[in-house]
Write a structure and sequence with these properties.
Belongs to the multicopper oxidase family. GO terms for molecular function: copper ion binding; oxidoreductase activity. Residues 44-92, 99-176, 208-321, 382-508 form the Plastocyanin-like domain. By secondary structure, this protein is mostly beta strands. It has 3 domains: 20-179, Sandwich (Immunoglobulin-like); 185-339, Cupredoxins -  blue copper proteins (Immunoglobulin-like, Sandwich); 363-508, Immunoglobulin-like, CATH 2.60.40. It has helices spanning 158-164, 175-179, 438-444, 495-499, and strands at 20-21, 26-37, 46-51, 60-63, 68-74, 102-105, 136-139, 146-152, 167-173, 188-198, 204-205, 229-232, 235-236, 239-242, 246-253, 260-264, 270-275, 278-286, 288-291, 296-302, 310-315, 333-339, 366-378, 384-388, 406-413, 419-423, 428-435, 466-469, 473-480, 486-492, 503-508.
């Protein structure tokens, strides 16, 4: 279905107001419900799932160090909006069809409040998963200012719950950010980018079968899902009216599988000021920015001296990344900026020359080095199955870092896709990527490098929680584990991979 571009204005998600706020803590309640929402003016209203009655959910804004309690409440129907595959782990017939658990992606949080995939709950908490511990989650927000997001994380149906609409921004602010004099207020705009496909009646399309159906199975997990249209903040190809001045945009790739390589058709620079977990040391001027699923970046775009211009944000990342098909005219378009508002006041905001000290972690301090493979195999039905370290979800836990210790992980990609690998709880730094001989590794289980180590790209030189592990490369990351102990997960953030075994528990021990 081809929809007209730039018909609808970009919606800005509202900022959620707390139910209680005092010197000791802040308390929110967040409802998940089924709603009808207009995603494009040429479509009938679409049934989606939303937090607090909207998709994407409202933005939650907190201060660094603020103690926040959130009661996430599932008030969704008993039947799922989308086709469930009951052959997938965690989604067998012995669990309720609709269940949710919320993960604040990038949060520094106790494990009981992290949204462990088997800590799910149903409507009114009538049924809960075996790792469910509490109805009210606690977030200590021990991060510097950064762009996080919250989304569903229920085992076996994460791809369906997020695609149905369960995602929103979670922003942490601090004093340093306020001192930088960045564009703020209405000049700071979150952009949650996703792809979806629609049926003719405006409803969400998600495949019931893989291209080669398995006889006797109602539905089937697909290796990856890519949509035919691009949405920003829940609107297809929206436009945003802007003044001729600087704006700050918080970019989030919240797609199931699709990578975005974002450019402006004006050819002008965007100034990146942060990575996933906060400010970089210095801003960098870039003409394009690559975002894998779950990656975030903060950019400043200057519309000064562009009065009357229309500027289109485009995407040219192939799917699957990096060796798939290039986008078409529809999936190559993201949104439009219209510089048609008059300047309401003099723009005194800045692109600071220096933002935050970035101290590299010392490799010599690493207590442990882990060699972990990214594998592709087949299940008993002949379907593609992606694994971490060649282990399935239920295999015994093999990663058990000590609290406060530093480790280096070698992510050895033996597949043909780039995988965005996300670790819960902690932040890391990318050390390097290096080409290696896959055939020799497969035979000998030894790494034979075929090129020099390449440092991370300039846009990745900061604190991260999601890293692109490219095919035929070893990606090295370094991190310190803490400040909590307990049960967490690491996984590929391509949701079809995550739901079908490309996720592993890990435990931080004392």
């Amino acid at each position: 279905m081809i929809l007209s571009k730039f018909l609808d204005e970009l919606p800005i998600p509202p900022v959620l107001k707390p139910l209680q706020k005092n010197e000791s803590y802040t308390y929110y309640e967040v409802n998940m419900t089924e709603i009808k929402q207009s995603l494009h003016s040429e479509l009938s209203e679409t049934t989606v799932w939303g937090y607090e009655g909207c998709y994407p959910g409202p933005t939650i804004e907190v201060a660094s160090g603020e103690i926040v309690f959130i009661k996430w409440m599932n008030n969704l129907p008993d039947r799922h909006l989308l086709p469930i595959d009951h052959t997938v782990h965690g989604a067998h017939m012995d669990v309720p069809e609709v269940r949710t658990v919320v993960h604040v992606h990038g949060a520094c949080v106790e494990w009981e409040s992290d949204g462990y995939p088997e800590a799910w709950f149903t409507k009114g908490f009538k049924q809960v998963g075996r790792y469910f511990r509490k109805q009210i989650y606690r977030y200590d927000n021990c991060n510097h200012a950064c762009t996080l997001w919250y989304h569903d994380h229920a085992l076996g149906i994460t791809r369906l719950n997020i695609y149905a609409g369960l995602a929103g921004f979670y922003l942490i602010r601090d004093q340093r950010e306020r001192s930088l004099n960045l564009p703020s207020g209405k000049y700071e705009v979150p952009l949650l980018i996703q792809d979806k496909t629609f049926n003719n009646d405006g409803s969400l399309y998600y495949p019931k079968q893989r291209p080669k159906p398995v006889s006797g199975l109602e539905t089937s997990i697909v290796p990856e899902f890519v949509g035919e249209t691009i949405l920003v903040n829940g609107k297809v190809y929206p436009y945003l009216k802007v003044e001729p001045r600087k704006y700050r945009f918080r970019l989030l790739n919240a797609s199931n599988t699709r990578f975005f390589r974002i450019k402006l058709d004006s050819g002008q620079l965007m100034y990146q000021i942060s990575t996933d977990k906060g400010f970089m040391q210095h801003p960098i001027g870039i003409r394009q920015i690559l975002l894998a699923p779950a990656e975030r970046a903060d950019v400043i775009i200057d519309f000064s001296n562009l009065e009357g211009e229309n500027i289109t944000m485009t995407n040219d990342a192939p799917t699957p990344f990096p060796s798939g098909s290039p986008p078409n005219d529809n999936t190559g378009t993201v949104m439009q900026f219209r510089v048609i508002l008059s300047l309401s006041s003099v723009d005194t905001s800045a692109i600071p020359a220096y933002m935050f000290p970035f101290h590299k972690l010392n490799e010599r301090l690493a207590l442990k080095v882990r060699y972990l493979t990214l594998n592709e195999t087949r299940d008993k039905f002949g379907r593609e199955l992606m694994l971490l370290d060649n282990k399935q979800w239920d295999a015994p836990i093999s990663e058990n870092p000590k609290l406060g210790s530093t480790e280096i992980w070698y992510l050895i990609n033996l597949t043909k896709d780039s995988h965005p690998i996300h670790l819960h709880l902690i932040e890391f730094q990318i050390l390097d990527r290096r080409d290696f001989d896959i055939e020799r590794y497969t035979k000998e289980k030894m790494l034979h490098y075929t090129g020099a180590a390449v440092p991370p790209e300039p846009q990745e030189r900061g604190w991260k929680d999601t890293v692109r592990a490219n095919p035929k490369q070893v990606t090295r990351i370094i991190m310190r584990f803490g400040p909590y102990t307990g049960l967490y997960v690491w996984h590929c953030h391509m949701l079809e991979h995550e739901d079908y075994e490309m996720m592993r528990p890990y435990v931080v021990i004392r």
